[in-house]
Amino acid sequence: MISELLRSQPEIALFASLAIGYFIGSFRVGPIQLGGVCGTLIVALLLGQTGARLAPDLKNIAFALFIFALGFTGGPQFFANIGRGWRYGLLSVVEIVSVLALIMLAVTVMRLDAGTAAGLLAGAATESAVIGTASEAIGKLGLRDAETLRLQANIVTAYSVSYLFGLITIVLFTSQFAPLLLRVNLRDEAERVWRKLGGDGAFGEGQQAAAPAIVGRAFKVGAAAGATIQTLEQQQGFNLTIERVMRDGAALPVEPHLALAAGDVILVAGRRDAVVALSSSLGDEVDGAVFGQLFAEKIEVVLTRREAEGLTVAQVRERADPAEGRGVYIAAVTRLDTTVPALPGTELNRGDVLTLVGAKADVERGAQRLGYVLPPTQKTDFVYLGLGVLVGMAIGHLGGRVGGVSVALGTGGGCLLSGLLFGWIRSRHPLIGSLPSAAAQVLKDFGLATFIAAVGLSAGPDAIRLVREYGLALPVAGILMVLVPGLLSLWIGRMFLKLDAPMLLGAIAGQQCSTPAISALVGVTGNSTPVIGYTITYALSNILLPLMGPVVVGLAGKIG
To answer: How far apart are CA 482 and CA 123, in angstroms?
Structure first.
């Protein structure tokens, strides 16, 4: 009865896979969480035993939207990190080269077919997008339909088996085993790096500081009498601003050369450490009710200014004209939808989203100098989206033979490259191509989950056969494909690149495209310093690994 219903109405199987899969994927055991995509695949493999199938066109459309959105959101960071972040980027190269070498070794020793080899890559590297690019590459080999379906089913099964073991391995390696090999206390090391980057005593759990970074406090002028506003602000590197001055109950115009008098009540706003440092030389802190209700503006700005790329937050402040930078504070830095600590020593990349805080006129002036205000629109530019996907499909028809190996990008690889290009263009010309982050996230989540459900349903009947054929060999191979690149990157990053342990381990989590691993690291370190290394390698590996799908299919076909 149920089998007949699912076969006649496969949309029921689709949404059942999504609902049950994401429910299963939400459970956490320690730092380990399967996630919705893997959960959806497991449920789809089970429901696939009933014979339910989704139309191939739906699968192709879903994957095209997912992979284009992936490239679109990662484009600005990808191009920003190609040259500038070479030390971290080298680790992504280590990941790609070592994984490809291990895959070819497994193909030779275990006699893997092209589908199983590609699935092993996708699962061990925890990069689901490889399933799509490899499936398309197999579809272009010109094999019989039955053989094509078998190889594509093997991708999904090998992925589902190796993913779990790869996920557990990378989480435990980065958060537990690697610190032992480095002989460091990861929490103490993270606190040292935090302070080296300019963090103060607000060393809080996770990515949220124990107290707000930007504060406002009122003082009654005592020892600071006779000093000018500009002198006091300059003492703290313009990391605070005297916003209001009250003298004998009357508000005075705040001008740089205004000299304060004993008994003046002033409102000081800025970075907490700077305000605290200056407070002892100002006078007694008082109730700020005399200033009435004040509003601070908070806007998000995409950094496009070429001169600011690679500079730290402190250097941007130092090089700004005091009149232009006055009253503008960077409260947060968002990179690839991940919050990077906005410390004085944090380096900025073009494409970063900066959260500016200050008076309305000040932050608007700062936004004009740094980039463009991120429009709060909820509308998607479907002209730009449709054109981007069409260009990606056209690129996907490109291919050829490299060293005797036939390599074709396919729709997946083409849309990924197109997304990179269109995302980069959007970052340079913000008036075109609106794709709000929430809409892009829906395209990525729903597109990938639908694609995974479709391939899982079609692969169901072949899943058990492949597991019986290889037994424990696939899980062991998946573990080795995490440990070998991880150990190589740990050695290279520590001995030659001289990277600090928290950022190095974050970069290893990023080269593996593992969100659970960086979450576990942040929990162990107690702050978000590992995120600095994670975002760079994640941006690179998240683009390069899917492009390896067709390469693995071509190489495995030739060697096999």
So the answer is: 10
